[in-house]
Amino acid sequence: MAASLGEWHWSGKSERLKIDLSSEEFVSALSGEWGLSEFGVLLNGLSRRQVVRTFEAKEGIVSCPLTLGDGRTLHMVGAFNEDADAHGLLLSETVVQSAVTAPGPALVPVFQPIISLKSGKVAGFEALARWSNPQSKADAPEQLDDKALASNMMIHACQALDTWRNIAGYEDLFIQVNLTGRDLTDPKLIELVSALIDGYNLAPGILRLELTEQAALRDLDQAISVAKALRELGAALILDDFGTGHSSFLWLARLPADSLKVDFDLISQISDQRVRTILETITLLAKRLDMTITAEGVEQRDLLHVLQDIGFDYAQGFALGRPMTVPAATALLTEAA
Ligand code: G
Ligand code: MN
User: Fold this and answer.
1) Which of 316, 320, 324 maximizes ligand 1 atoms within 8 Å of its Cβ, making it the mutation to test the pocket?
2) Mean pLDDT of the chain
3) Which of 4, 80, 127, 317 lies in disulfide reach of 157, CB 3.0 to 4.6 Å?
4) For residue 113, which phi and psi values (nearest 5 degrees)?
5) What are phi and psi of 322, to 5 degrees?
6) pLDDT per residue over 103-144, tens digit each?
7) Ligand 2: distance of its center to the CA of 240 in Å?
């Protein structure tokens, strides 16, 4: 059975939930348009309360396990948009168990443009987590112990993409989401990626997962097997922060990856001849291994032609676009279209 059973839309204004299921007998009784109390009749008591609480929140992530009256379970994932409407997928079983502990509305996913050096256009976005709660002071996601972060970021990113790919000229836009070592060991990761690729009908390489060596090195064998499974599903793998830390060629040799993302520290020293030679060599290496290559942390626009001469495919950095909210990114693409 496909993990994604169909889509749902919640209208904050009319407080109606519209469920559009593919022809799955399993839950066909849920198809249709519902007021919350009518819908609740189909659920067990606990789920009923959870659904009401979820839609009362009016913002943030939607991640709600649904237990039907007869005990069968499925999972509702999605997110609110600016108008307090929400939209998402119904997934079978407990595909996104980890997302049950979804963080509250304080999580604000932002998206930083990635520019194609060939076309000069936005080719994709990296999803980055920001917290709207100023007391937490932690806008560095790695400081937060949040098991569901990658799941939530993936869900948000797919939803945003679903809007952006309707803008003329951006049909092939990709999205990049960061994974930690712990995400790689989460048995639900593969199921969620599969559900999202399936549910949003993503062509291979549209959902791209960024992995740092630190994350992979926790357990290289496990990382390799998860990486292979993710690629088989149609997700692309990017080795992030390449060129710093302990980046080893063994890692590069063993981990099947589609792309390298070269660390900010190297890019910032591009005027140094030795650094430039190293960058030329890394881009050549990427080409020879049939990988694309991205420069990160580009803080001067006039570096673009230098990066292209060196052999980079993509660039990302403050000079090309700061991390921005979904509506800001939509406006950027719409203006450029
Ligand atoms: O390594 P990773 O791909 O996760 O890097 C993304 C991070 O780098 C984000 O936190 C983002 O805000 C930051 N970043 C993006 N562009 C620039 C830049 O041009 N300069 C600096 N200093 N940081 C950047
Ligand atoms: Mn990254």
Assistant:
1) 316
2) 85
3) 127
4) -65, 145
5) -80, 160
6) 445 667 899 999 999 999 999 999 998 876 545 444 444 444
7) 6
The answer, yes or no, to whether residue 145 has pLDDT greater than 60, is no
Q: Is 124 helix (H, G, I), strand (E, B) or coil?
A: strand
Q: Which residues contact 181 (CB under 8 A, 6 or more apart)?
A: 214, 215, 216, 217, 218, 219, 223
Measure 7 CA to ligand 1 centroid, in angstroms. Answer: 33
DSSP3 helix / strand / coil % (the chain, rounded to 5): 40, 25, 35
> Residue 247 has which token pair?
């980046």
The helix/strand/coil state of 274 is: helix
Nearest of 77, 272, 233 to residue 155 by alpha carbon: 77
**In degrees to the nearest 10, what's the CA dihedral of 219, 197, 173, 6?**
-150
Q: How many residues does this entry show for the chain? A: 337
Q: Pairing state of beta strands 236-242 and 207-212? A: parallel
For residues 155 and 327, give the distance between their C-alpha atoms in angstroms, rounded to a whole number.
16
The pTM for the full model equals: 0.75
Query: CB–CB of 176/126 below 8 Å?
Result: yes
Q: Which long-range contacts (CB under 8 A, 24 or more apart) does 46-50 make?
A: none
CA-to-CA distance for 191 and 73, rounded, in angstroms? Answer: 15
Q: What is the DSSP letter of 203?
A: P
